[in-house]
Automatic annotation (TrEMBL):
The chain crosses the membrane at residues 6-29, 67-84. This is DUF2516 domain-containing protein. The keyword Transmembrane helix applies. It comes from Kibdelosporangium aridum. Keywords: Membrane, Transmembrane, Transmembrane helix.
């Protein structure tokens, strides 16, 4: 019979997948020149990073020996969401005087 910890780990695994997909879709919908305007990597690079992260989150698990790949995927998409996404939004919004 599964324990409470099993359900928590399963919830974490399933909750991370939409985060990865969101990061990939957001990067996909942004203008390519916005990435260079914020002095970050190019759009294809971020599509590869977020896409690879989303795939890693979907294929690997937080609870077994593949955890390192799962964590790497989560870190990749969270870097995009926390660091790159706000700057992209800011540069595309322009000055709000």
């Amino acid at each position: 019979m599964p324990t409470f910890a099993y359900y928590i780990v399963t919830a974490i695994n399933w909750a991370a997948i939409p985060v990865g997909v969101f990061a990939f879709v957001h990067a996909l919908l942004q203008r390519a020149d916005a990435f260079t305007a914020i002095d970050r990597m190019t759009k294809p690079a971020w599509l590869g990073i977020t896409g690879g992260g989303a795939v890693a989150l979907a294929l690997f698990s937080f609870a077994n020996f593949t955890m390192i790949f799962w964590i790497a995927g989560l870190v990749a998409v969270l870097v995009y969401i926390v660091d790159v996404r706000p700057r992209l939004i800011e540069v595309q919004r322009g000055n709000r005087w």
